[in-house]
Amino acid sequence: MVRSASPSPQGTAGTPAPATSTLSVRGVHKSYGHHRVLRGADLELPPGCLGGVVGENGAGKSTLLRILAGQLSPDRGEVAYAGRLGYCPQHTVLNPSFTVEQHLRFFQVAYDLPDLALAHELMDLLSFAGYRRHRVGSLSGGTRQKLNLTLALMHDPPLLLLDEPYQGFDWETYERFWELSARLRDRGRSVLVVSHIAFDTTRFDRLWRLEQGRPVPASTGAGEGR
Ligand SMILES: Nc1ncnc2c1ncn2[C@@H]1O[C@H](COP(=O)(O)OP(=O)(O)OP(=O)(O)O)[C@@H](O)[C@H]1O
């Protein structure tokens, strides 16, 4: 049973997660037909923590994140989180006919934001403010991903679920991404990054390796702090 998960981009508050956690996942199972992908996944993410879930292609990372974001129902298990969430899906759901600015306006309405100040700040930080009037269909993959990420972050939610968020980024933008994530973490946000790339694990406060359908705690290589 899912006690709390939001299908909408803005998220909704559901059953609160335990006081010590922003996100609490208990015993989540998911199969596609006979293919058992998640087999009792447990995970706790406290406030102000930058967490990572790594695993091989097909391990079930996106399935887990889609369940956490409320896009997919688990067969059983519980997901609870406090407040809104921001979800950056692996595959962008952008409309190629609309401009970057039009996307921001749509999400401003969806999130019920008074202005786009944070969105514009994120665009400056990710160096794509110059594309504001460009149609999404004309953008490079990396720039589309910058927009994808901005749409997930622009309402400053307490919980961020980011699926392969730096795919297509050049090195400078990749570094900016980590600076931004660390800044969010330092402001008390909980950030969960899913990636098949496991070489930069020292960036994380907590790390799990998704193996045989379960996130297994792993060393970040930097000493566990949070
Ligand atoms: N809608 C679906 N129907 C059937 N099988 C699916 C579906 N979605 C995913 N799968 C299968 O479930 C398994 C896990 O897929 P998932 O996309 O969650 O893995 P992943 O760890 O995110 O992989 P990647 O690193 O390649 O993105 C894979 O074997 C995939 O083929």
Q: What's the assembly state of these chains?
A: single chain
Query: Which stretches are low in confidence, meaning pLDDT under 50 for 5 or more residues running?
Result: 1-14
Order of helices and strands: EEEHEEHHHEHEEE
- Major sheet summary line: 6 strands, mixed
Share of helix, binned: 25-40%
Percent of sequence in beta strands: 25-35%
Mean pLDDT: 88
| Form type | globular
Alpha carbon gap, first and last residue? 29 Å
How would you describe this protein?
The protein is built from five helices and nine strands. With 226 residues, it is an alpha/beta fold. The strands form two sheets. The protein has a six-stranded mixed sheet with strand order 5-6-7-3-8-9, with helices on both faces. It has a three-stranded antiparallel sheet with strand order 2-1-4, with helices on one face. Helix 3 runs antiparallel to helix 4. The longest helix is centred in the last third of the chain and has 16 residues, at 171-186.
Offer a concise description of the structure.
InterPro entries: AAA+_ATPase (IPR003593), ABC_transporter-like_ATP-bd (IPR003439), P-loop_NTPase (IPR027417). The protein is of the alpha/beta class and 226 residues long.
What key phrases describe this protein's structure?
226 residues; 5 helices; globular; 9 strands; binds adenosine-5'-triphosphate; three-stranded antiparallel sheet; alpha/beta; six-stranded mixed sheet
SSE layout:
Layout: E1 23-32, E2 35-45, E3 50-54, H1 61-68, E4 76-81, E5 85-88, H2 100-111, H3 117-125, H4 141-153, E6 159-163, H5 171-186, E7 190-195, E8 206-211, E9 214-218
Helix pairs in contact: 3-4
Bound molecules: adenosine-5'-triphosphate.
